[in-house]
Structures are given as C-alpha cells and as structure tokens.
Amino acid sequence: MNLTPLALAQQPADGVAGWAAGLVDTMGGPGAGLAIALENLFPPLPSEIILPLTGFAAGQGVLSLASALFWTTLGSVVGAVALYWIGVLFGRERMHRIWARLPLVKASDLVRTEEWFARHGAKAVFLGRMVPIFRSLVSVPAGVERMPMPLFIVLTTLGSLVWNSVLVVAGYWLGDRWDVVETYVGVLSKVVLVLAVAAFAAYVAVRLRGRSGAQHRRTS
User: Fold this and answer.
1) How far apart are the two ends of the chain, measured CA to CA in Å?
2) Eight-state DSSP code of residue 14
3) Distance from C-alpha of 137 to C-alpha of 73, rounded to nearest angstrom
4) DSSP letters along 43-73, please?
5) What span, in angstroms and rounded, lies between the C-alpha atoms of 77 and 62?
6) Mind listing the pLDDT tens digit of every residue in the chain (220 residues)?
C-alpha cells in the first residue's frame, strides 16, 4: 500500500478531519474503518467529514477505492452491531419500566412503536443507514426487539454500503474539494434534526392538550 501523505493536497490539520486524516495516514483502510465504527457509536462524529476525506485519501493513493469502501462499510457494521447489543442488554422489560416513569407518554404508545418496528423494522434498518443521525440510533431498537442478527447484519451492510459509497466516491472525485460534501450533507443533517424536534414538540403539545381536556372534563 502506498502511504502517500495527505499533506500533498490540503490535509486537514485539526478537528475531526485532522483526527480522521491521521488515522488514515497511519493505518490506511483499517484506520478509516475504525473512524467510522466510532462514528456509529458516537453520532456527533460526522460521517459527512470522515467518508469524503477517506475518498480523498484514496484519490491521493493512501489506499485504494475498493479498500476505502470495504473498510468503512466493515466499520459501519461493527459499530452498528455494538449498538445492537446495547439494545439487547437494555432489554424490552427495562424499556417498559423506564417508559412507564416518563411523563406525557402511555404504555400503549410503546406497544404501538414495537408493533410498527415488527412490521417495518427491516426497512427502518436498511433505509435508516442513509439518514443522518438516525443511521446510528436505529441499531438500538433493533437490538431491543431482537431482530435476527443475520438479517440485521445483511441490512446494515447493504444500507451502509450505499451511504458510504456515495460519500466516499464523492470525496474521491472532488479531490481537495472533498469538504463540499460536508456542506450539503450537513444541511441535510440539520433538516432531519429540525424535523425530529418539531415532531417531538408536536407530540408533547398534543399530549398536554389531551391531559388538559381530560382534567377539564373531570372538574366540570
């Protein structure tokens, strides 16, 4: 493997990008895989930086494009499986106990969520790999609901391969402009986050309105 330093063309020196560049420079493909495995475990680490940067490194000869895709996808699967086992260890009964103590929620809400995941869990795991933020979080309910591990790994591998390929190849073709990918995916991440917050706020508002109405009926 030709470990050509990324410094040949605008190597990032600090922050997440500098850390990821250092891993790829030092370890090649396994370094990229390690970075993405950690990104799955700690969603604040942005794949929209790590993956295009890995593609850029492939364009500089630090590793091959095939190696970049293989190791980043393997890293995605390893990180997802770790989160899956956290869901397994957390367990359905503990989830129900914690849920019962939360305000503004009902036991029936969690039951409906479980029923939804039972019907659509495969699509959620596959498509969730291509949605910023949720690409990591979706592994936990898969573990809580004990999705068969072989199915989970296959869906995670396919979904991660699609997401990783788009961002790695983009970084490969853009060269030292790889950070353009971060700009566009970062906007998408913010949109997803805003929609999630808005949906949660609407849910809370509906619950509060329902409780207020119930109390009014009891006092009248």
Assistant:
1) 78
2) S
3) 17
4) TTS-HHHHHHHHHHHHHTTSS-HHHHHHHHH
5) 23
6) 444 455 444 555 456 667 777 788 788 889 889 989 988 888 667 777 888 888 888 888 888 999 999 999 999 999 999 989 988 988 878 876 766 676 655 666 666 667 777 788 898 899 888 877 777 778 888 888 889 999 999 999 999 999 999 899 988 888 777 666 666 556 555 655 565 556 546 545 555 565 555 555 555 5
